[in-house]
């Protein structure tokens, strides 16, 4: 008797899959409503308080960071994900460029939620036209990535003024099955104005919330995030020895190799 052809088995759904689906939908709704609430009810009263533009921006950033921390706690307690964040206390120093890989939609939420309120961030240019994110971005003075020389100069200037700056050099989320491909803009900013560069390696298993993936296509089990802050890097090691184009290329190669090595190492050990 002929044997049936073997069938590929999809991973079995785990960790209260149906509940996670409902909770994930609720999280997206809460995120949108939270951004709208900040724009309508938090930032206008803050704008009436005395202080310079930078003071008002810092108030707005603290409000955004607090709301992101609350949002992370909600997702953890709802059973959507777990987070292991190591070295967060080293983030947010004056003149620090924080460079991170970008596997999922939530990466910026984790970093802004864990970095002190004076940190700036380079965000996707299209977010400034979104009614739910426009208010927070403008009130906090975040830098929109329009890939112009003015963006690079402004990013370098905020570092010189003593702000920390968060950037995702890939410019978009890492495709599934690929390693990060870093654009040189982050290195150009670092060479122009950073006192120190600190890499942050973000891992998540199973992969989800990738570019183009609908929110309801949740993974078969709970997402597990591992976020580790790496050793500081002094941009002067390239800035003082090479011309800007060569220094930018060499520094970018160094960061690319660092992220590839860290991600491959942990993939190989199953961590």
UniProtKB/TrEMBL annotation:
Coiled coil: none annotated. GO terms for biological process: phosphatidic acid biosynthetic process. It comes from the Bacteria. GO terms for molecular function: 1-acylglycerol-3-phosphate O-acyltransferase activity. The keyword Cytoplasm does not apply. Signal peptide: none annotated. Residues 96-205 form the Phospholipid/glycerol acyltransferase domain. The chain crosses the membrane at residues 17-42. SMART domains: PlsC. Pathway: Lipid metabolism. Keywords: Acyltransferase, Membrane, Transferase, Transmembrane, Transmembrane helix. This is Acylglycerophosphoethanolamine acyltransferase.
